[in-house]
Amino acid sequence: MNSPADLRPPDFDSIVDAARLLHGVAAVTPLLRSDALDARLDAAVWIKAECLQRTGSFKFRGAWTNISRLPAEDRSCGVVAYSSGNHAQAVAAAAMLHDIPATIAMPQDAPAIKRTRTEGWGAAVRSFDRNAEDRIELARALAEERGCPIVPPYDHRDTIAGQGTVGLEIASQCRALGIVPDAVVVPCGGGGLIAGVATALKTAMPGVPVHPCEPAAGDDTKRSLEAGRRIVLTGPVRSVCDSLLADTPGELTFEINRRTLAPGIVVTDAEALYAMRIAFGDLKLVLEPGGAVGLAALISGELPCRGRTVVAVASGGNVDAEIFGRALRDPDMH
Amino acid sequence: MNSPADLRPPDFDSIVDAARLLHGVAAVTPLLRSDALDARLDAAVWIKAECLQRTGSFKFRGAWTNISRLPAEDRSCGVVAYSSGNHAQAVAAAAMLHDIPATIAMPQDAPAIKRTRTEGWGAAVRSFDRNAEDRIELARALAEERGCPIVPPYDHRDTIAGQGTVGLEIASQCRALGIVPDAVVVPCGGGGLIAGVATALKTAMPGVPVHPCEPAAGDDTKRSLEAGRRIVLTGPVRSVCDSLLADTPGELTFEINRRTLAPGIVVTDAEALYAMRIAFGDLKLVLEPGGAVGLAALISGELPCRGRTVVAVASGGNVDAEIFGRALRDPDMH
Q1: According to DSSP H, which parts of A76-134 are helical?
Q2: Taking the model in full, what pTM does it have?
Q3: Which residues in chain B come in under a pLDDT of 50?
Q4: What is the DSSP track for B83-152?
Q5: How far A148 CA sits from the closest chain B CA (Å)?
Q6: Residue A60: what are its φ and ψ, rounded to 5°?
Q7: Which DSSP category does A267 fall into?
Q8: Angle at Cα B81 formed by Cα B77 and Cα B86, nearest 5°?
Q9: Contact B35 A285 (CB under 8 A)
Q10: Is the ipTM of this complex over 0.90?
């Protein structure tokens, strides 16, 4: 699957090249602000709205970059991926747009919208039990049967380079606005998005701390950063943030992240749901729980932002109506 | 209030000048698309996301332009407005940013989010009974007491010029994308937004039909266009689209609209709510009922769009959680 070359971190030029591959294919998502949110937090908060990206999350950037860089003969029979849902949709979409088939292993408990939309992009979905089956072994078996490559969700230099274009856009949008953020906060599962963003910002906006934010129940990156080595959480990770359920950082992503990231931040499920509600009222954006943890870090005070300028990446918006309704039923809106 | 000069339609240059006034103050809202939505409708649909505008609707553009163009001595004591909620917030925000007080007459049944946020901008709110009191007379009395001007919600050339900047942006965004829409559909209450948009597009993107869309219960503009004169609906207008409850077109707006608009379209409340749900899932946008009627016209087939390229203005996103939850509870999502 990953040749040794794939485990070299992508450099800045590789991200710039990914931006070229994505030009006219992916959306340049807006950097949004809200007077109500700024007043609420006494801060200047900018939201990088990746929920408005194609397929509803940043994952399309990495999937497209990865598949585009596969040699044509390697991808001619199609691609395989494993994913809780956002990478699934992204690979399915990128495969269809490349006119090749996709087979995706998805956990049985993935949100309905993620599964339906992955199938809507023409992908064959193979369900698995998150607690009983090993998703990577399953993907390897599917790839071997079909003679086609796996598109890794985060631990691959091309996937990371694609996600890094989020960082390039943040830097150029901040420049256009004449602002230099005091911090950037990014939702973190396997660590691919933040590895790409931090790599891009290290060159394009140097000196700005980039914090990973995780659900409290899945704080593997925070702990790993503190320990200086990859920690594996024991027991299943349970959180409403279905897109951030990694139990250990990626090998390549952690190699990048341990050198570049500011300390990790965690938020509770209730804080993530409350942030979805604030995004609904203040920003008019639909965020999924995992996409809202960066904003939740600011609202909860876990990342102090009073009097500061902060960018929060809102990484996705694929959420079932039922969970969204739950987030809205909190009593103290407005 | 309105001097005779105010009843001259704004010309294209006046809209370009409004864009200059709004530069760096209002957001340039994105023109968004969704693969899922396009597949659903077999069309190329572009959404002008004014729900992402400051104060959550396009109204900020008109309010800011209007207040900015008031002679400084006229506005020194503040401004007065009447509004069901979006113009209220917009005037309150524009007044606060100009450092002058605002007094706003709002109907008792305005959505809670609209009233709370108007007060959040520091405005004094005077409630009235939509069915028992005349809002214009009330505003005149408030203005006289305070010795300050009224900022009209639509029937004023500066308000219309501000709203017209939505049209300028649509034209320049379409040009950048290399597309020429077959039609543009715009939510219509008093008609200020569409009068501005149509005026801008007549010069910036000539020949493209611009359709007003209204709730079926408040179809005064559709009927007036058909009759060639301003029709006044009899009886109170009842619809979930609280921002589109006009019972007759504005005098100046209709003078513009009767010369420039394509036929009117109406949608039911159920169609507006269903469009909110599609915007939630496909676009990750929060739309209010009145902001969703343009999209509803496409989804319902009232404006046929199969095989065509269409721009729908999503004019606002100020909706209470309860109504949004109702829109999400429809059975056939995804």
Answers
A1: 86-97, 112-120
A2: 0.96
A3: 1-2, 332-334
A4: -SSHHHHHHHHHHHHTT--EEEEEETTS-HHHHHHHHHTTPEEEEE-TTTS-HHHHHHHHHHHHT--B--
A5: 26
A6: -60, -35
A7: E
A8: 130
A9: no
A10: yes
Neighbours of A192 (CB within 10 A): 31
Given a contact cutoff of 8 angstroms between Cβ atoms, the answer to whether A55 and A86 are in contact is: yes
Average pLDDT, chain A: 95
Which residues in A have their CB inside 8 Å of a CB on B?
A: 27, 30, 32, 35-36, 39, 51-52, 54-56, 93, 112-113, 116-117, 120, 277, 280-281, 283-287, 317, 320-321, 324-325, 328-329, 333-334
Q: Contact at 8 Å (CB) between A119 and A88?
A: no
Task: State the pLDDT at residue A7.
Answer: 77
Counting every residue written for chain B, the total comes to 334
Rounded Cα–Cα distance for residues A158 and A188 (Å): 18
- What's the CA gap between B170 and B184, in Å, rounded? 9
Cα–Cα nearest to B228, from B247, B201, B255, B209: B255
- For chain A, helix, strand, coil in percent to 5 are 50, 15, 35
Per residue in A62-100, pLDDT (tens digit) is: 999 999 999 999 999 999 999 989 999 999 999 999 999
Angle formed by the axes of helices A86-97 and A59-69, to 10°?
Answer: 40
pLDDT digits (tens, 9 = 90+) for A189-220: 999 999 999 999 999 999 999 999 999 999 99
> Residue written as tokens 């049967």?
A145
pLDDT of residue A330: 67
DSSP B57: B
**pLDDT above 90 coverage of chain A, percent:** 91
Cα Rg of chain B (Å, integer) = 18
- Confirm whether B182 is a catalytic residue: no
Distance between CA atoms of residues B109 and B236, nearest Å: 13
| CA of A51 vs chain B CAs: smallest distance (Å) | 6
**Alpha carbon distance, N-terminus to C-terminus of chain A:** 49
Q: For residue range A245-259, what is the model confidence (pLDDT) as tens digits? A: 999 999 999 999 999
Q: Which residues, 6+ apart, have CB-to-CB distance to B199 below 8 Å?
A: B9, B10, B11, B12, B15, B160, B164, B167, B256, B260
| Cβ-based neighbour number of residue B85 at 10 Å | 28
Q: Which pLDDT does position A130 carry in this prediction?
A: 84
Min CA distance, A166 vs chain B (Å)?
Answer: 17
Among A128, A123, A84, residue whose Cα is nearest residue A103: A123
**CB neighbours of residue A332 within 10 Å:** 6
